[in-house]
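Pipeline run #58 for the internal structure catalog. This entry was flagged by the ingest filter as a single-chain record with no existing model, so it goes straight to prediction. Upstream metadata was stripped on purpose; only the residue string is passed forward. Reviewer on rotation: M.T. Logging verbosity set to normal.
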Amino acid sequence: MDGFASRLQEALSEFQITRVVMGLPLDLRGSEGDSAQLARQLGSLIEQELGWPVEYMDERFSTQMADDGFRRSGTRRSKHRAEIDARAAAIILQDWLDYRYKGDS
């Protein structure tokens, strides 16, 4: 197992993880391009090499939504790329939770 996979395994094992939710970068028509194929390759590595189930969630517009939140607060995007990425990841996860548990309330 390479360094990345072993670090990822360590991070996933630290928490009570039951699955990995991965953003799937689809194009505006909902089709999968090169970036989506790379995401699926990483997902396959996580499933096959590390044994964690992976579920994919459409990530279209998540970065834009996160960036819009910063713009409304007057913060410039270029200075906070890591924060935008973290907010986009939170949006993807919330979308997945909303989709997965939409009828359970």
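catalog note: The chain is about 55% helix and 10% strand.
catalog note: Residues 61-105 form one domain.
status: ready for reviewer M.T.
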